[in-house]
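Before going further, learn to read the protein records used in this course. The integers have meaning only within a learned vocabulary of local backbone shapes. The record below shows the convention in full.
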Amino acid sequence: MDLFITKLLLAMFAPALLVVFFTRVTFHHYVGLVLTVSLIAASVYAGYTHDWILYVVDALSLTVGFWYAKRMVDRARGHREND
């Protein structure tokens, strides 16, 4: 049960943080999303995720991370245009 809780906590925060990180590195939120989805797909293929609830939590976290990364990119573009 402890392992499931650990996986659940990681599923809540890791995808969102990875999308934001990859967006900061590549300067494009779609690339950040694709790289994060690729990492999650690789972990599912390797057998680290077994429960459907983890898929749902991953998807929600990806959505929140993508929303924040898009907002971050839009703000950065707005500041560049104002200078």
About this structure: The chain has a mean pLDDT of 92. Residues 52-82 form the longest helix (31 residues). The helical segments are 2-26, 29-46, 52-82.
